[in-house]
Design goal:
Low-confidence stretches: 379-436
Largest sheet: 6 strands, antiparallel
Helix content: 40-55%
Strand content: 5-15%
CATH class of the largest domain: Alpha Beta
Oligomer: single chain
Length: 608
């Protein structure tokens, strides 16, 4: 896990200071070492958090006779077996060199053979061409910008691109709309018009001033085979076990987050067999209801070296002010601070931690969203999710209350931007589209919400609804949160559920093996339930956020809100109109958190 950066331009010797600023801005992503290599027309920078090949794995890494050079962030799981298949004279034992070898043998077609989580930039000095790619699910970030002189600047974080001094960032009003609707901006946009995010499962090439971006992988379709739950569970267990084992390979200690929920407990149920001395880490708030008892229950069963972490001494007000530096964009997931705190505490126990991320999206964990669809489908005997989607928007007040997102916004808005032509080609005014409160952006003079990425099949099964989460919510919110919170503390997080072989299998399984009107994560429970305590197997999902006590009792936070939101001189009003914003918040107090986060970001990052 590292930070990468670089500039592609004629005579990059002019930009050595810019490259040094970029590397310096991402020290937190790689405090073990840093390096810069200058080709004539490309400069590459790297911050290293050493995990594999501690001695000879430094970057930028050069290929044979310096014909190529690479900077790489991530981990290639199972890279040793890939290495054995390649005709290449390796100089190191690192996974980085495997990417260079794959490129030499297959060129840009190499991505079909590359597993793991990754973002890399590779310069081909012979072809005078730049090649970059991002992993299938967006675990690792990759940002880029084109300068006024038609030069390419790229980095793991937006702050590094801005630190280069080669672009002047411009606010994108459409991105502000998206943020106010979802609480995050998404995997394909940034808050700035002229800084771009390479989407998950895409690569780019830049040569002779010409940029090309293309998708290299797509979601598998639902299998048409008649597979039983027991057969699917057997296959799942084999793939899941292999995924966990591969992700425990490192030249440093690997620990595991353990919340006592189904996903993290499943990971630990395998990991403790690989390493009987496995350290497990659970996080909670003192004097408040938490998941700690469930985590301890699992740790006792697996006999792990278990540690309970608390937020002792945390200054939530200061942490709130730190969010713009961590995320570079407005990001209002209320578990962002809690995730930062557990990563900070976990860093004392090692450089690498396993997580349960991806389990909800792949296996139907968001019951408050999917179950109302299924109920309507059952009532109408519908062969698609069309009527179920509409019904999910009109569920009872009781269900809606349970279905609040961590941002405090109604859960329905998460899906409001789905493109109508893709979801309902025959329904002009679908409930799925109309559910968004368009008055929010209209009243503020902002553009409408852009469409979400969707991957709908002809049959419109519930698997299609899950792909909305995999394509948007997971890389736009969940994986942004974990990457930035972890890297701010120089910690690498690994998600076994996102192993490509396992994930493809899960996506292709019929929806009825994942969720029905009685249970969620059916496949996971069937495959892994026999290895965990009964109470964990049957417990409901529990949220993870900032201590409610701190939010409700902090007078400092209340004052901050006044300073950042009510004050007419706030930088928030360089972006939004003061009068209309004040009136909107008076009408819709549930939006306060999102506007507060935007205001803090604006005052720190966008003061004119």
């Amino acid at each position: 896990m590292c930070g990468i950066s670089g500039i592609v331009a004629r005579d990059t010797s002019r930009y050595r200071d810019a490259q040094e600023r970029m590397v310096k801005s991402m020290y937190h992503r790689g405090p073990d070492s840093n390096g810069i290599y200058n080709f004539d027309n490309c400069t590459l920078g790297h911050n290293r958090l050493s995990i594999v090949d501690l001695v000879s794995g430094d970057q930028p890494m050069l290929g044979k006779e310096s014909r190529t050079g690479i900077v790489f962030n991530g981990e290639i799981y199972g890279y040793k077996s890939i290495r054995e298949q390649l005709q290449y004279d390796f100089a190191t034992t690192s996974d980085t060199e495997v990417i260079l070898a794959l490129y030499q043998q297959y060129g840009t077609d190499m991505l079909d053979r590359l597993p793991g989580m990754f973002a890399f930039g590779l310069w081909d000095n012979e072809k005078q061409s730049f090649f970059a790619a991002r992993d299938r699910f967006g675990e690792k970030p990759f940002y880029y910008a084109i300068t006024a002189n038609n030069e390419l600047v790229f980095a793991s974080e937006i702050k590094a691109i801005i630190a280069s001094g080669l672009i002047k960032p411009e606010i994108d009003a459409a991105a502000v709309s998206r943020y106010l609707s979802y609480g995050y901006i998404g995997p394909v946009k940034t808050i700035y018009k002229n800084v771009h995010s390479l989407p998950p499962a895409h690569y780019l090439t830049f040569s002779n001033g010409s940029l090309h971006v293309e998708r290299y992988w797509n979601y598998p379709t639902t299998t048409t085979e008649n597979i039983s739950l027991s057969d699917a569970a057997e296959k799942f267990e084999a793939l899941f076990t292999d995924a966990v084992k591969k992700q425990m390979v490192a030249d440093v200690d690997v620990c595991a987050f353990l919340s006592g929920g189904l996903d993290s407990t499943s990971v630990v149920s395998v990991a403790h067999k690989v390493n009987p001395q496995l350290k497990t880490l659970a996080f909670g708030y003192k004097n408040e209801v938490s998941e700690l008892p469930y985590a301890k229950m699992a740790a006792d069963m697996y006999k792990t070296d278990h540690h309970e972490l608390f937020e002792e001494g945390a200054n939530f007000e200061d942490l709130f002010l730190k969010l713009p530096d961590i995320y570079d964009e407005p990001f209002s997931d209320s578990s962002a601070i809690a995730t930062y705190l557990i990563c900070k505490s976990a860093r004392r126990f090692g450089k690498v931690a396993l997580t349960g991320d991806g389990g909800d999206e792949l296996l139907g964990g968001y019951t408050w969203w999917y179950k109302p669809m299924l109920e309507e489908i059952a009532l109408r005997g519908a062969g698609s999710i069309k009527s179920g989607f509409a019904f999910a928007m009109a569920v009872s007040e009781k269900i809606k209350e349970k279905a609040k997102l961590s941002t405090g916004r109604d859960w329905r808005n998460r899906y409001s931007g789905i493109q109508r032509s893709k979801l309902y080609p025959t329904v002009a005014e679908s409930a799925a589209y109309r559910v968004v409160d368009r008055s929010i952006t209209t009243r503020l003079g902002l553009p409408g919400i852009e469409s979400l990425d969707c991957f709908w099949q002809q049959d419109n099964t519930i698997n299609d609804a899950m792909k909305v989460d995999i394509a948007n919510y997971m890389p736009g919110d969940i994986l942004v949160k974990t990457d930035r919170a972890a890297m701010a503390n120089s910690l690498e997080l690994r998600a076994p559920f996102l192993d490509v072989n396992l994930a493809e299998f899960c996506i292709s399984m019929p929806g009825n093996l994942k969720i029905d009107d009685k249970a969620d994560k059916i496949l996971l429970r069937e495959a892994m339930g026999k290895y965990m305590p009964e109470k964990i197997l049957k417990r409901d999902k529990q949220g993870f956020g900032v201590s409610r006590t701190h939010w409700s009792e902090s007078t400092k936070l209340q004052k901050m809100y006044g300073d950042f939101v009510h004050d007419k001189q706030s930088a928030l009003y360089n972006i939004l109109p003061y009068k209309e914003t004040s009136e909107l918040l008076a009408d819709k107090p549930e939006l306060i958190h999102q506007f507060f986060v935007l205001a803090v970001w604006a005052n720190k990052k966008y003061s004119i």
